Amino acid sequence: MDFSKISLTFGMHREKEVIWLAFEYNKDLINEIKQLLPTAKWSSTQKKWHVPDDNAVRDLLHLPMKEYMGKRVMPRLSFNNQAQLQRMMDELRLRAYGEPTIRTYSVEVAQLMYLLKEFPIQNLTSERLRAYLLYCFEVEGISVNQMHSRLNALKFYFEKVLGRDKFFMEIPRPQKPSSLPKVFSEKDIERLFEVIDNQKHRLMLQLCYGMGLRVSEVVRLKIADIDSGRMLVFINNGKGKKDRYVPLPESILDDLRSYYREYKPNIYLFEGANRGQYAIRSVQGVFHTAKEKAKIRKKVGIHGLRHSYATHLLEYGTDMSFIQKLLGHNNIKTTEVYAKVSNTHLAKVKSPLDRMKKS
């Protein structure tokens, strides 16, 4: 979307914070806005489009995030617990945790602090914490995955911030469900790419699949990371702060060169309106729009492109240990899960029903 054609201003509409979008009438631009921002609405009184002013929308519009902890969390906590939450955030930053992890941990610990009210969180006993976790399951009804997230945050606070190494020894951790990665067929992938007219958008998703990249790695790619001479791409500071190289698909090289000549990116391969790093949510929006347009009904997110890359490589006969290195997995067991969804062996299995009908 060409944001240079849109004037963005902050305001209020019907007692809610909104972002106003003002531009000269353009039917194609309106369609793009509706695709990128499904919550966009037209105000007949103001004669302008508007969207809710929240961080999800700001991310899509490449705007600075709203003050996260200050406005949404801190005022609801006691003075003591505010200080403890800030102490945990400082410790996370000193240990070089990423901002998404800091936000997640802060929100999870704050959920407990809300219930504690004036009670100091550092005085909590393991018995009271067990009772709280039971409350999370029975009353709040949180999922097993969210419970693990909450436990990780609380464990960090009590063990790393307060130094209580054995505080969680008697607190059980719920067993995670054994779920398999969801993948696309090669025909699904082809249909997905075929419906994307925008060259930039198509390349983003092609790199997710063609090199098995996480969406966060795609938006962090820099022009200097592409080595067309060696046909390699350098993935800097991937998950777990690990670097790795992945092969650059030959089939995409001409499209990359064409894209570079047209868009002339400065630092990042894919840049936003202000020449900064492209927003992750924007790439996710491109994916979901394309999936809908291609009429792919599978409930698979953009990470499914990375899963499909690994699964298809395995089906082509690529060695498991090599796939592990390409994906940047620490443990081969993480990679071995793709053997469970690979069609290589499953396709050879004949159902007893098929044999019965042949006889």
Quick overview:
The longest helix is centred in the first third of the chain and has 18 residues, at 99-116. This protein is an alpha+beta fold and 359 residues long.
Number of domains: 3
- Find the count of extended strands (DSSP E, 2+ residues): 7
Helical content, roughly? 40-55%
CATH topology of the largest domain: hpI Integrase, Chain A
Largest sheet: 4 strands, antiparallel
**If you compute it from the alpha carbons, what radius of gyration comes out, rounded to the nearest whole angstrom?**
24 Å
Major sheet: arrangement of strands: 1-2-4-3
Total helices: the number is 17
Low-confidence blocks of residues? 67-71
| CATH class (first level) name of the largest domain | Mainly Alpha
Key features?
single chain, 359 residues, alpha+beta, DNA polymerase, domain 1, hpI Integrase, Chain A, 3 domains, 4-stranded antiparallel beta sheet, 3-stranded antiparallel beta sheet, 7 strands, 49% helix, 9% strand
Please give a structural write-up.
There is one protein chain. The protein has 359 residues and is α+β, with helices and mostly antiparallel strands. It has 3 domains: 3-60, no CATH class; 68-161, Orthogonal Bundle (DNA polymerase, domain 1); 186-346, Intergrase catalytic core (hpI Integrase, Chain A). The protein is built from 17 helices and 7 strands. The protein has helices spanning 27-36, 55-60, 68-72, 79-94, 99-116, 126-140, 144-161, 186-194, 199-210, 215-220, 253-263, 280-293, 303-315, 320-327, 332-336, 343-346, 352-358, and strands at residues 7-13, 16-22, 41-43, 48-52, 226-227, 232-235, 244-247. The strands form 2 sheets. Strands 1-2-4-3 form a 4-stranded antiparallel sheet, with no helix packed on it. Strands 5-6-7 form a 3-stranded antiparallel sheet. A hairpin with a 4-residue loop joins strand 3 and strand 4 (48-52). Helix 4 (79-94) runs antiparallel to helix 5, helix 5 crosses helix 7 and helix 9 (199-210) crosses helix 13 (303-315). The longest helix is centred in the first third of the chain and has 18 residues, at 99-116. The chain is globular and about 60 Å long. Residues 67-71 have low confidence and may be disordered. One of its GO terms (cellular component) is cytoplasm. One of its GO terms (biological process) is DNA recombination. Residues 179-351 form the Tyr recombinase domain. This is Tyrosine-type recombinase/integrase. It is found in: Cytoplasm.
